[in-house]
Design a protein that fits this description.
By secondary structure, this protein is of the alpha/beta class. The chain has 13 helices and nine strands. The termini are far apart.
């Protein structure tokens, strides 16, 4: 499907949007069941320490009721249950999906924040299609890389193509989109992204600089012209970019702070987090946003 849509990207009839009925009600009542299930999720995530993440099974000493849209499982005392990240992610997606009503998700964040990796995980468990905005632009430009587009056409030209891509993506439902790091600087882009749900992956600059230095700055058009060691170059430029864009990221509907996740898990560094743990937190924050959204829509007398 992605290949077909990418091929249509260059034409007005790029995609026909599917229509969905109004968003289902009852999220607040449903979320109460979800909150009652926090004990299970908290217990599960507590077992996801770095040295215990792989395929270990832990005994559950007391019965825990697990909410699920399709079925409810009761863990009997003394039973053995696999605390698996992938299973927790799947369960979280099942909690959120009924209330999305097909709405798309847009991941925003600084370069190197993991938008593509996390976005692919989220789209898979939701059964949504995944699109990388930069990749769509490259395909529309006959395979020309983003770095080459910056060199030969300039940043303004690229930003225009980026807006075109987001406009077309905004007509779609049931997609997860990884946006470019600078997509947040144009207000018109927020207009398109807010047709779905925007999620900000908030990663400390030091961690971003280490990630980018590890893979090199060649593919980062705003970084690779600097001289010096890779980490220093990346951190200095990222700091400048953050000063320019930091406030814009706060327009997102949901914020996923890697520092907060690491603190909750008891990790010393955000680099200890797995993409799956970040995706789980992203769904948690989306659910919180949807709860607040519904609260705003319901008259006080109906609460």
């Amino acid at each position: 499907m992605e290949a077909t849509i990418a091929q249509r990207f260059q034409y007005p009839s790029w995609v026909e949007s599917r229509k969905f009925e109004g968003r289902p009600h009852g999220l607040l009542r449903y979320s109460q069941r979800v909150k009652e299930d926090k004990g299970f999720r908290g217990l599960a995530l507590a077992h996801l320490q770095p040295e215990r993440r792989n395929d270990r099974r832990r005994a559950v000493s007391s019965a825990v009721s697990c909410s699920d849209n399709n079925s409810s499982a009761l863990l009997e005392a003394g039973s053995v249950y696999p605390f698996d990240e992938d299973l927790i992610l799947k369960r979280k997606a099942e909690e959120v999906k009924p209330f999305l009503n097909g709405r798309s998700m847009y991941l925003v964040g600084m370069m190197g924040s993991g938008k593509t990796t996390v976005g692919k995980l989220m789209s898979k468990v939701l059964g949504y299609s995944f699109f990388d905005c930069d990749s769509l632009i490259e395909q529309a430009m006959n395979g020309t890389s983003v770095a080459e587009i910056f060199v030969h056409h300039g940043e303004n030209f690229f930003r225009g193509k980026e807006t075109d891509a987001l406009k077309k993506l905004s007509s779609m439902y049931q997609v997860v989109v990884s946006t470019g790091g600078g997509a947040v600087i144009r207000p018109i882009n927020w207009k398109y992204m807010h047709k779905g749900i925007s999620i900000w992956l908030d990663v400390p600059l030091e961690a971003l600089a280490h990630r980018i230095a590890a893979v090199g700055t060649g593919s980062r058009p705003l970084l690779h012209d600097e001289s010096g060691d890779a980490y220093s170059v990346a951190f200095k430029r990222l700091s400048t970019i953050w000063d320019e864009r930091g406030e814009a990221y706060t327009n997102a509907n949901a914020r996923v702070s890697l520092e907060n996740i690491a603190a909750k898990r008891g990790y010393k560094d955000v680099s200890d987090l797995t993409p799956t743990e970040i995706a789980i937190e992203a769904f948690e924050q989306v659910l919180s946003f949807l709860e607040k959204e519904e609260t705003m829509e319901i008259p006080d007398g109906d609460l």
